[in-house]
Amino acid sequence: MRVTRVVFTVLVVSAVLLAVGDGPGVGNRARALPASGAEPERATVPYAGRLSDETGKPVADGAYDFTFALYDTVTGGEPLWTEVQREVFVSKGEFLASLGSVEPIPATALSGQNRWLDVAVRGPGEVGFTSLAPRQQVSAAAPTAGAACPHDHVGEEWYANIPWSNGAFKVYNYGNGPSIWGWNGGNGNALRGYATGTGLGMYAESEEGAGAVGRSTNGRGVEGYSTNGPGIYANSTNSDSIRVDGAGGNGVYVGSSGDHGVYVASAGWSGVSVWSATVAGMWVYSAGQDGILVNTAGWDGVHVVGPVGGVYYGSGKRGDEDFAVLSTGEVRSKIGFAAPANDFAITMVVEGDKAGYEPGDVLAVSASGSGAVERSSAAYSPAVVGVYSAMPAFVGGRSVTGDDPAAGVPVAILGVVACKVSAENGPIRPGDLLVTSATPGHAMRGDDPPPGTVLGKALGELASGTGLIQVLVTLQ
How far apart are CA 264 and CA 258, in angstroms? Predict the structure, then answer.
């Protein structure tokens, strides 16, 4: 036959204290007073209580002041011990105090068997204390040092029906050690939580420190597993939902030998959604290694797919992706690439000091034979190569081996770009063919230009002098 049991490390006396007049009420769980031989001058007693108003509802959250006193009579008499605890925080009507933490409980207050606890409370903004009655009888008996019971409880099953605001088993610890320590010398769980309904398998909460910390020497510090719900679910109002700091290794390391290292699928929303109103939605920083490293032997490094034939994940084959970074480094997009600028540029080394060049300069192959480019300075030059682009949409020719990218400039060889022009060969109108001019770094209108000298077509106009207009670069 199963027996319902509730076990505490100290004896428990349950009572309900009702307010006098219109004051609040308090329901408590006062722990047994320590035995008189166990350093009574430093004894503290955990006292958990609940404050309610005259209608039975929890009082407002806030800091309340309490007076605690021990008597040897149920009414009247002189207190054997008393103390005032100020600014005890009450949340949802519940509070926790430590009797004896302000004024040590003397041995004389613990020597007898019959003791009664008197409690008075003062709420925020109130002047006087409201005494709660009747006094609560407590026991001076306490468990001796050593094992609390003559047996180890192995294999026992305990049952309770406790609301969310309480707990079937509670441990109060006022030191800096763990309240519950689970240790497993084999291959099982040191601590395991399981919930059959909609509750949480394990719930951790902290006011200032970490709600839960997982550490492991050779295994997993934290492992989340779920059949139908999230393996790990994190939600935060004012701080990080999940924060991972790696002091000497990986902040997050995901490895898989036969399947996805990380697999994210969503039928009706983002697979991964990162949002921030004031700072970076996602920030990856690395001092000496890759900020993000995707390593794959035979599939895409990044594979993004959308609805295909009514199925959100598509066929899963190459060529069916919306966007992909292949293991070869190739980048693919089903709908193309877009950028604010409209030109394609090649990084090319310039002749002389790069600081002397400006975006919009018309460039030609240098006559020095060095393979560099320089500002064009002759009319109808067949050596023309393009225009110095201020903000190219795509740039080719940049080294990935660590060479200094400042050695060259982006030269637009195709697309729309701002270009320096001169009206020295007549006004420029939209649609005019443009060639190099005698003005260094400028293009002009070309009249029946020879093959190989055309820079492109004017999209803007210039009536006189020099200026900057949009040009469609189409070398021919």
Answer: 16
Higher pLDDT, 213 or 121: 121
Integer Cα distance of 66 and 60 in angstroms: 16
pLDDT grade for 451, boundaries at 50, 70 and 90: very high
Q: Tell me which amino acid residue 27 is.
A: G
Burial class (CB in 10 A: 0-12, 13-18, 19+), 117: buried
Task: Enumerate domains of the chain plus CATH numbers.
Answer: 12-139 (2.60.40.1940), 299-338 (no CATH), 342-474 (2.40.300.10)
Residue 458 exposed, middle or buried by CB count within 10 Å (0-12, 13-18, 19+): buried
Q: How far apart are the first and last CA of the chain?
A: 96
pTM: 0.44
Q: d(Cα 407, Cα 370) in Å, to the nearest integer? A: 14
Confidence at residue 194, expressed as pLDDT on a 0 to 100 scale? 78
Instruction: Return all residues near 198 (Cβ < 8 A) that are at least 6 apart.
Output: none
- The Cα angle at residue 231 between residues 229 and 235, in degrees rounded to 5: 90
Nearest to 387 by CA among 473, 289, 299: 473
Lowest mean pLDDT among 64-73, 123-132, 292-301, 378-387: 292-301
Least confident of 318-322, 335-339, 427-431: 318-322
Helix (H, G, I), strand (E, B) or coil at 94: strand
